[in-house]
Amino acid sequence: MASAPASVLTDGPSPLRPVVSPRLSRAGEVLELVRTGRASTITELATAMNVARSTVTERVEALTDRGLLSSRGEIVSGRGRPATVLAFNPAAGVVLSAQIGMSGLRVGAYDLAGAPLAAEESTDIPVTAGPDRVLAALVTALDAQLVAAGRARADVLGLGIGVPGRIELETAREGGSAAARPWIDFPVAERLGEIYDVPVSVGRGMGLLAMAEQRAFHPDASVLLGLKVGTVVECGVVIDGKIVDGGSGLAGEIGHTPVPGADAVCVCGNTGCLNAVAGGGAIAERLRLLGHEVDSARGVAQLAQQGVVEAGRQVREAGRHIGAVLAGTVNLLNPDVIVVWGYLADSGDQLFAGLQESLYRMGVPAATRHVTIEYTRLGADAGVRGAAVSTTEDVLSAAHIDLLLTRWQAEHP
Ligand SMILES: [Zn+2]
């Protein structure tokens, strides 16, 4: 499941007709030209697409019937009749998205321009509860979002889900056995597709989080890394606007890179992994040995914020270890931006100080001078926003719009 590419649209039980009506082919292209501001009248569209005006008119009518295009008035240019100015209507559908995390899930509902239709909401339920219970809670939360947005299931055009990486799942243990097993190969997309009757895309949470930050605040960044420093340390990689999942969905799993000289045992079976040394879980364990009552990455962050010296020192030291591993990544990928996210990043300046210390000492100077390291601006919403962005881009792709209109016309003759 976790190794699924970030944005594969899988059809639900009543799949979109695989054959596009010839009268609707390239309708998606019309929408794209209008949506991106490259054309707004029939004449401009016909010129851009190198087709007859009548061909464009037929597709504009279909898009208008479906509500995706509307008229924004008329303009008079030179001689001839006034031309209707077309506009994209983002209210023509809803995209639902969710981020399934290790201890809870977060959901959102968005219009087709990515604007939230209701406040994003969280539900506490651990992944260890298993896919059946987690998905039941997810459907309840998604339906509540629709109600809050004043919309219905019939308005939903796509559903995007971010899930923990496989390795992250494998670190969650219940009663001694890995909680990942029931999730591996569980048909998340098919199950939700049956319920909402729309395409569902499932991607790794970290990649979606990085994508959300890239689209919202760093559209010009050719390489952006999303670094999560919570219970474990992991990365999401976005290159040229695309999430890089790697050959088997494990790109960015830097938490299992060995730290020189460290011998702490990691859940993966190796010793000295970055997670076992600098993950929030490992820090909490060390602080407990020093007499502090703390059992999570969140707790570590709280202690550091409260000014507990030892907690701050541990977080800074973790930052140094993470920075050392990150230096290799910076040398390899030459990122423009590294966005840092997670409980340990919330703990104040200590983590950033440690990170930068190692990064500037160990990275290629030109590459480390170039990179901007910043705290997440989307915060807890990054994951759901990323899943929504990725899904909306798929839903609005030219090929998908052709299919959507074909299906719409078949159902509304
Ligand atoms: Zn490991």
TrEMBL record:
GO terms for MF: DNA binding
Pfam families: HTH_IclR, ROK
Every HTH iclR-type domain range: 24-70
Signal peptide (from-to): none
Gene3D superfamilies given in the database record: 3.30.420.40, Winged helix-like DNA-binding domain superfamily/Winged helix DNA-binding domain
Region (Disordered) residue spans: 1-21
Single Gene Ontology BP annotation: regulation of DNA-templated transcription
UniProt xrefs under PANTHER family: GLUCOKINASE, ROK (REPRESSOR, ORF, KINASE) FAMILY
Family statement drawn from the similarity comment of this UniProt entry: Belongs to the ROK (NagC/XylR) family.
Protein name, per record: ROK family transcriptional regulator
Organism for this UniProt entry: Phycicoccus avicenniae
Lineage of source species: Bacteria, Bacillati, Actinomycetota, Actinomycetes, Micrococcales
